[in-house]
Amino acid sequence: MYLSTLRYATVDYAKKDFRYPFYCTFKVIQRCDSRCEFCDVWRKPMPDMPTEKVLRIIDNVAESSVLLLSMEGGEPLMRKDIGEILEYVHAKPLYLLFTTSGKLIDRRPMREYAKCIEFLHISIDEGHRNLDLYESLPEYASWGPVVAAQIVVMREHLKDLEWKVMMCHRAGAKAVVMPACHLPGTDSHLPDIAAFRDEVLRLKKKYPQTVITTERYLRTLDVPHSCNTASVLIDADGRLYYPCNISPVCSIDASEDPIMGFLASEKARECRERMRLCGRDCHCYLYFAMDSALSIRSTISALKPYLGGLF
To answer: How confident is the model at residue 229 (pLDDT cuts 50, 70, 90)?
Structure first.
């Protein structure tokens, strides 16, 4: 599967047009057990997709250029069929990144689930109201997957970031740090971007094996038009919103419409052009962080913490 992804990446790089994504976020559920002030997911109720539809979407993703599937919500552990879904993904030519708030970890067979997960991200911050989980990170880090605390930094809590990174360091876990981007319908908790960047860069230098937020991402946070479609998102209604889910121009039903056929279409090319001209400063990690794919060197740097044995 690496050669296939590399072939698509070579086409993207040559054309400077990210037609073929290597990263896909799939929101398998809209329901959530958190009420983060910076998040808009829980504010938009949506029924759970049937299991069969979820599995068809996974088939579609597995047949695309995507190498890394990020499964999140809402809170995916709230799905009763999540074990079946994880096993299904595990049989596909995909790396799986699984994100949870961790509030249900002790009530689910996570050691078994972990066998199907390559990268386990646990959102631990003030927004999720679960800071006590930092004490349990050493246990989670022993389960097998690469474990990272996913830390969303609100403006009023930037000063508290270092102790969280220190707890990750002590546990042998990683820290993925991102600003609380201002989403439609939410109050803004976005930290001062210069102060945020300086602090994360300082912590990357102090804890180089712990903080895996890329330097290129931090450097481009205030650079206009830094998003691209090297990553895509499939929402909890099963639709792939394009070029992004914040300012979508078009969408397809990812349970029915072939992803690769859509990405090669003229309509998708027009959507990518709109992204290049977008004037929003949403600072969404999903699309900004993938700017690392603009060079082979940056791509390797971004993926190395996740795919360590390959590089």
So the answer is: confident
Residue spans of beta strands (DSSP E) within the chain? 23-27, 68-72, 95-100, 119-123, 146-153, 174-179, 231-234, 239-242, 250-253
Torsion angle of alpha carbons 111, 100, 153, 190, nearest 10°? 170
SS3 label, residue 134: helix
100 strand-pairing partners: 122
CA distance 150 to 31: 19
Class of the domain covering 2-137+225-305:
alpha beta
Phi, psi of 146 (to 5 degrees): -70, 125
**pLDDT band at residue 293 under the 50/70/90 scheme:** very low
d(CA 146, CA 117): 9
Tokens matching residue 309: 């044995």
Per-domain residue ranges of the chain: 2-137+225-305
- The tens digit of pLDDT for each residue in 159-173 reads 999 999 999 999 999
Contacts of 143 (CB under 8 A, 6+ apart): 110, 111, 114, 120
Q: Looking at residues 213-239, what average pLDDT do you find?
A: 86
Task: Kindly tell me the burial class for residue 149, based on how many C-beta atoms sit within 10 Å of its own C-beta (0-12, 13-18, 19 or more).
Answer: buried
73 phi-psi bin (left φ>0, alpha ψ -120 to 50, beta other): beta
Q: Is the full-model pTM beyond 0.70?
A: yes
Strand 231-234 relative to strand 174-179, pairing: unpaired
Q: Give the mean model confidence (pLDDT) for residues 137-152.
A: 96
**CA 110 centroid distance within chain:** 20
Residue with tokens 């994360």: 200
SS3 readout for 146-201: EEEEEEEECHHHHHHHHHHHHHHHHHCCEEEEEECCCCCCCCCCCCCHHHHHHHHH
With 0-12 CB in 10 A as exposed, 13-18 as middle and 19+ as buried, what is 34?
A: middle
What would the mean pLDDT of 184-211 be, rounded to a whole number?
Answer: 93
As a whole number of angstroms, the distance between CA 45 and CA 47 comes to 7
